[in-house]
Amino acid sequence: MSTVKLPSIVTPALLSLIRGHPQLPLHSWYLIAGVTLSAINRPDEIPTVFKYAIEKGVGRVDASPEYEEQLRIARKMREALVKAAPIGGLPKAINALFALKSATPSALLDEPLGYSPTTRPAEVYDVSSSTILHRGQTFFDKIYGKVSKRVMGQMDRSGTEDLGITARLMYGYILSNTSVLTAAESSYVLLAGLIPQDVNPQLKGHLKGALNNGATVDEVRAVREVVIQICEASGMTKIGDGTPGGWGWRGEIANL
After folding, report:
1. What is the C-alpha separation between 96 and 192, in angstroms, rounded?
2. Backbone torsions φ then ψ of 29, nearest 5 degrees
3. Distance (Å, rounded) from C-alpha 45 to C-alpha 99?
4. How far is CA 221 from the centre of its chain?
5. Under-50 pLDDT residues of the chain
């Protein structure tokens, strides 16, 4: 059975618009685009974003990146898709990462048993779990601020304490690792993964959490704007009250 070819979302015009957004920090636009495409289940479009970044550079003016800069772009994009897994689901992350690999020159890949820019293999096998979980709790507390205990407590009392355990594991081993992405960049990833899913209760916390992680109000609003632009290019729209289903949002998307 042949696969249906979907219309392209990532046009040169859209890429130019995203890369040129005056409020987006360098090295953020392609992360946001890649994670958004993964969340809306369009991993086939991720190679286009990646190739554009490594060929034209991350700034607002075309500049062919040197090898070290290309490697940085590749590692940041891979890490963004890994960090999107707890938000958008592991199957989508798998498909996104393999789509990215298909467009990545071998010299820009990190192979098993070699150098790990995130040090996660060592964290899993050589570092005590209490150390990693403490780091994750600290990261969680910084995002949620004064309501962090209440939020984690709600998950512990969700009917199964395992929800809280799952959150602690995700924050400890995945989200709180800032070896490749900064805390602010990690928040951009979370926003890009949440907005397409129409989950305002979680999105509201992470909009404020991005500020707690060092982003500015203008940067957070820019991330939100770019994610919505990509979603709308894919056909997402606001769903009417009387519509039983569809591809879009059931209300206004949370904002700062």
Report:
1. 14
2. -65, -40
3. 8
4. 15
5. 1
CA distance 177 to 121: 12
Dig out the tokens for 138 from the structure.
Answer: 């600290």
Paired residues of 248 in beta bridges = 237
pLDDT tens digits, 137-183: 999 999 999 999 999 999 999 999 999 999 999 999 999 999 999 99
Residue 2's pLDDT is 56
What would the two tokens of residue 13 be?
A: 């015009």
Secondary structure class of 247 (helix, strand, coil): coil
For the beta carbon of residue 40, count every other beta carbon within 10 angstroms. 23
Contact 50, 74 (CB under 8 A): yes
Helix (H, G, I), strand (E, B) or coil at 46: helix
What is residue 131's DSSP assignment? H
Tokens describing residue 150 = 């209440």
- Regarding pTM above 0.85, the answer is yes
Q: Which residues contact 159 (CB under 8 A, 6 or more apart)?
A: none
Sign of the Cα pseudo-torsion (201, 203, 204, 205, in order): positive
The rounded distance, in Å, linking the Cα atoms of 43 and 96 is 5
Residue 241: partners with Cβ closer than 8 Å, 6 or more residues away: 250
| Most distant CA pair in the chain, distance | 54
Amino acid letter at 232? Answer: E
pLDDT for the residue numbered 232? 95
Rounded-to-integer distance, Cα 47 and Cα 169, Å: 30
**In sequence order, which ranges of the chain are alpha helices (DSSP H)?**
12-19, 29-39, 46-56, 67-88, 90-102, 120-125, 129-144, 148-156, 162-169, 183-194, 200-212, 217-233
